[in-house]
Amino acid sequence: MAMTEPSPPPNTPSEDVHLIVAHDEEVTIEYFPEDWLAMAVFWALAFIIFLQFFTRYVLNDSLAWTEEIARYLLMVVVFVGGAMVVRRNTNIAVELVPNLMKDGPIKRALTALVELTKLFFLGLLAWFSILITERMHNLYMTVIDLPMSLVYGGVALGCFMMVGRQAQNVRKAARRGFAPAPQTPISPIE
């Protein structure tokens, strides 16, 4: 008598048939100079805060300079991170009026005005950051004998990075005639 393998039950799928099929779009992650700079400053800030916590609560002998340097690094990471926000055009904005308007010359003029106004104010911020950096050169940090212009130089760098990214945004918007930026459609779940 020959032994045969039992056949699978009639409603059981074979091993090469999948019941759930998921197709994901390929995700590309791009990093820009301001991303790397913000990440480096952020991790330096995290290390200094950890060092402050460790020396204060574990060793019971706090390093005096950690609080001051952490405060200054936080200032730099905010302004360098602002360049990331401007690049992605994800800054906080009141969009009620443009969203209610139909696409046309008035909406495009309003978009142009908003983009150019942002560029103007960021340029003004960059200019004032240079002025304050120059004025702070003769003042020194409290604990470390370094000029405060180093701190405000990081702020100025972030401001100029924001101006550069906003100039790119204005150029892109002008190329499309200040029409609304194309949005990536969200596909429904299939």
TrEMBL record:
Q: How does it sit in the membrane?
A: Multi-pass membrane protein
Protein role:
Part of the tripartite ATP-independent periplasmic (TRAP) transport system.
Subcellular location per UniProt equals: Cell inner membrane
Gene Ontology process terms (BP): C4-dicarboxylate transport
Tripartite ATP-independent periplasmic transporters DctQ component domain sequence ranges: 46-175
Give the transmembrane ranges. Answer: 36-57, 69-88, 109-133, 139-163
UniProt protein name: TRAP transporter small permease protein
Keyword list (alphabetical) reads: Cell inner membrane, Cell membrane, Membrane, Transmembrane, Transmembrane helix, Transport
Organism source for this protein?
Phreatobacter aquaticus
A GO cellular component term found in this entry reads: plasma membrane
